[in-house]
Design brief:
By secondary structure, the chain is an alpha+beta fold. The protein is 53% helix and 14% strand. It contains nine helices and six strands, in the order E-H-E-E-H-H-E-H-H-H-H-H-E-E-H.
């Protein structure tokens, strides 16, 4: 069995479950070794496309959007933190004071894909926000994070100062919304199979094996 798989990972960089989903998916692919050849492509989704540049207090946001109380939010955060630790990712919830607009981060991810660094940049953005508590709508933070991912920071600044890749990102966002993707992470395999949510490694591994066997 050696299944070739095109995997579209639809996500937002401000989504903690997307961190868990991507880390779990990568571990599942690793466990399968040479049984599958997977190409992972990141696709844009904005959880809060109307979010202003200055962002919003995260507790206020969770109450307004989901009706979550402070205690409920704390419980969810602890569950996310524990899942992250199991996957080797450190959520530092005490640093997450605000949620920010992520459109410019998606523009950089689109550029990074052409440079072969999109997954590296996604991981760097996750760390910048969820571990270091940085503002992902700040152009300088984004440029510095691009450099961490092995990209040219000067080119990143040029992109951020222009409207480069804005149309492409909007078009891709619309494509997945039109396909019925309204929650992330959403993992689409070979344009046919949909897996949603921050699933455990075992769930991804089982699904990948089944898809490879039926190919």
């Amino acid at each position: 069995m050696n299944g070739r798989m095109k995997i579209d990972f639809v996500s937002d960089v401000s989504c903690p479950w997307c961190v868990i989903g991507l880390k779990s998916l990568e571990e599942a692919i690793s466990r399968l070794g040479n049984q599958v050849t997977a190409e992972v492509h990141l696709q844009p989704f904005e959880l809060n496309p109307q979010m202003p540049v200055e962002g919003q207090d995260i507790a206020e946001h969770m109450m307004q959007k989901y009706g979550s109380t402070l205690e409920q939010s704390k419980g969810t955060r602890e569950a996310i933190r524990a899942r992250g630790e199991d996957l080797g990712f450190h959520f530092r919830m005490e640093k997450l004071g605000r949620i920010y607009n992520t459109f410019n981060a998606h523009r950089l991810l689109y550029w990074a894909a052409a440079e072969g660094r999109e997954v590296a940049l996604q991981h760097a953005l996750f760390t910048a926000y969820f571990t270091d508590g940085k503002n992902l709508s700040d152009p300088e933070v984004l440029a510095e994070t691009a450099a961490v991912a092995g990209l040219d920071a000067a080119r990143a600044r040029e992109i951020l100062a222009s409207d480069a890749f804005a149309k492409e990102v909007r078009d891709h966002e619309k494509l997945y919304l039109d396909m019925g993707v309204h929650a992330v992470p959403s993992v689409i395999i070979n344009d046919r199979h949909l897996i949603q949510g921050g699933q455990p490694v075992e769930a991804f591994e089982r699904a990948l094996r089944q898809i490879a066997a039926s190919a």
